[in-house]
Every structure is written in structure tokens, then in C-alpha cells.
Amino acid sequence: MDIGFKSIEIGGKIVENRLFLAPMAGLGHVALRQLILEFGGPGLLFTGMCSAKAVPSENPEVSHVYKFRKQELKHLVCQIFGSDPKDMVKAAKRIEQEGFFGVDLNFGCSVAAICKKGCGAALLKTPDIAVKIVEQVKKAVSIPVFVKFRIGWEPDIAMVKATAKKFENAGADLLVFHPRIAPDRRTRPPKWEYIAIVKKAVSVPVFGNGNILSKADMEQMVKKTLCDGVSIGRLAIAKPWIFSLWTNQLKNYDNIYHHTAIRMTDLLLQHYGEFIGVKFFKKWAPYFSANFKFSHAINKKLLYNNSMDEIRKCIEKIFQNTPEIAKKPNQNIFL
Ligand SMILES: Cc1cc2nc3c(=O)[nH]c(=O)nc-3n(C[C@H](O)[C@H](O)[C@H](O)COP(=O)(O)O)c2cc1C
């Protein structure tokens, strides 16, 4: 199945293809999403995780995480994290009112600060609360409800199957599954065979996620696991045109690296201004630099600058002679 050319129905809504941008806090912001949409091609885009407690009172004009463009809402799913079903319901209602495509429930984040509050992957220790969240959010809104989760805290196949089934029965319209246990860092390979297990366990669509770093990886994941689609994280940060390329929409590939870097500075300035824009550029720089053979040297040069003007001059200098492209992004700085 060529997932770049096959539509899918999610909670009664049709999505053009089965390539999603994964939620990534600090990277999947409005500027990056605008750049991706300028190239074209993603089925859906996901925001980085937003606090369910904060969402009801967020000002999208001001908030760095909850900032969006009206034009992107039809493609955009807002991800929320929280531990109290009431907070999650309130946030989901705001997300529906705002006009997002859907709401995504984060049961996968393993960052200590999030788990300590009983949110993210911590909820997989007590799936009953997570299931209650899915049930109550589903009852409260009519937009599609997504669940992003991981294996849990132990590689327990029976538990993963049971949890996936519970999410389905609670009303999840689509599951995005990241097959790592919570204590695993991204340096450990994800266990794709668990995606196949989840896919077999439920009848709602299951999207696979984890270490798709090339088209061949994406094809392998689909072939091996029979997942219904894929959610792409770091590769889409490094190459925001990947959705366009994989859906045969990319027209002009010349100078794409140079264009991407300069356009990113424009969009960051436009959406966030100088101070935050520079900060976000520096967060993005390692992923962009990972595209090149001498990625560490390029990253170091980009990070050395303190203003967007300096960053732009630095980009022009780097691209006086286009640096050699690596076959796959350099995983050492691609964490
Ligand atoms: C910097 C960074 C921030 C992330 N933030 C989130 C997040 O907010 N919510 C979430 O569900 N996953 C988050 N993730 C995990 C990704 O969505 C994805 O599961 C992970 O990167 C593996 O996919 P990949 O190999 O395609 O990058 C984050 C990953 C990275 C690298």
C-alpha cells in the first residue's frame, strides 16, 4: 500500500494521505508547520504537547506552544497532556471550538517532569485513568480523538494489547503507537514488531512511529507491521519537504537546503520575533545540520550566532559551496 497516495477516514473525516507530522515540543511550532505546508504533502500535522490545564486560557497570539494559523487548522491536531479527565475535557472542548481537525491525547511522553505529575507515559502505569480520559473526551467533543502511546514501562505484550483494546473501546478514533518502553532513550531502536501486535489487536487505524529516517524505512515499517500509516518526527524536522517529496509534489529540488534554512529564519521572525526566533532556530539547527556529512561543524557554526541577521549571514557562507549531503541524517546529533 502506498500510504502517500491513499486517503483515510478518521472519525468520519477524510484525510488525503497517511503521512503525519509527529508531535514535537519546541520543534513542531507554527513556523515549522508553515514551512511544511508551503512544500505540501502532509496528511495531518500535530502540535507539540500542550498542557490541558493551560489550554482553556491560552492566548494563541501570545503562547509559544499553542500558537497556530487559522489556515492550518483543517490539517492540525492539537496534542494535550494532563492527568485529570476534567482538565482534558475542558481543553478538548476549546480545541474543538477553535476549529482544529482533532485532539490527540499524550500517553507517551516519558520526560521526568511530565511523568512526575502523573501525565504522559505515567498514565500507562494506571491505564484505567488513561481510559477514563479517552472516554470522557470522546463524549465531550465530536472532532476525532487520537491517542499517542508507547509500550509502557515493561515490554509486556499482553498489557500492550489490552491497553490498545481499551483505548479503542473507550472511543479512540486512531492510535499512534511508538514502540519503546518509557525508560528507553531514542538511541535504543524502537521495537517495530510491537506495532504489528497493536495493529492486530484493534480495528481502528493504527499509525506506526519511530526511527523512520528514509523512504525505505517508511516502506519497511508499513510492510513489516501492516500499520495503516506513519507518524514522522525528526526526519520531518530535518527535511520539512519530506511529505511533499513522498507524495510527488516537490517541484524544485535545487537549493532546497539553502531555501529551507533561510525560509525558517523568515518564518521564525514573523511568528516569534528576534529573541524567541533565535532560540527556536538554535533548537532546530542540530536537526537541519544532521543532513550533511560534516554535520557537527555546520551545527557549531549555526549555533555560534546571536541574532537572526548573523544566522542568515552564516547560512549564506555555509551555502557558498553546498555541503555534501549524508545518505541518512547523522543520528549522533539527531537525538
Ligand atoms: C524534541 C522532541 C520533542 C518531542 N515532543 C513530543 C511531544 O510533545 N509529544 C509527543 O507525543 N511526542 C513527542 N516527541 C516524540 C516524537 O513524537 C516521536 O515519537 C519520536 O521522536 C520518535 O519518532 P521519530 O523517530 O520519527 O523522531 C518528541 C520528540 C522530540 C525529538
**First and last CA, distance:** 30 Å
Total count of domains: 2
Mean pLDDT: 96
The general outline is globular
CATH superfamily of the largest domain: Aldolase class I
Record field, number of beta strands: 11
Order of helices and strands: EEEHEEEHEHHEHEHEHEHHHHH
Stretches where pLDDT is under 50 for at least 5 consecutive residues are none
Strand order of the largest sheet: 3-4-6-7-8-9-10-11
Rg, Cα atoms, Å? 19 Å
Strand content: 5-15%
Question: Major β-sheet, in short?
Answer: 8 strands, parallel, barrel
Bound molecules: flavin mononucleotide
Please write the CATH class name of the largest domain. Answer: Alpha Beta
Instruction: Please tally the helical runs, counting DSSP H or I stretches of 4 or more residues.
Output: 12
Q: How helix-rich are the residues, as a percent range?
A: 40-55%
* SSE class: alpha/beta
CATH domain fold name of the largest domain: TIM Barrel
CATH architecture of the largest domain: Alpha-Beta Barrel
